[in-house]
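note to self: dont lose this again. the chain is below, predicted strucutre after it. 129 aa total, dont forget to put it in the shared folder this time
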Amino acid sequence: MTEEKYYQEWFKKAEQDLKAAKILLEFDDTYDTVAFHCQQAAEKYLKGYLIYQGTSIRKTHDLTVLCKMCAVYDEGFMNFFDDCKFLTVFYNEVRYPLYEVNEKVTKNEAEKAFDVANKIKEFILDQVK
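---
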């Protein structure tokens, strides 16, 4: 698989996460799952961007780490640092009942997660044109 094809595959997987998040946001109240899919979409877009740049991706789910790695190529990524910090929480903390921070994700938080993931997506897609 060519490198071009490879990063696009990451973007396709990210789109599937955004599609799932959108459907759940519109038709269900499982806001923790919405937030998780938004975190996953942002992670896949960031990793896809790194692949696009020819960088090896790290095995991490911490979006702030990925954001800093992307900022090496475009400092504009640092505008998303706080957003990445916000989304990173939704990787583990909302997926398992063992986390005490797993209070309920609100609809507003789920909507914000969806908006943030889409902003990251749009910024990255503008970079790879």
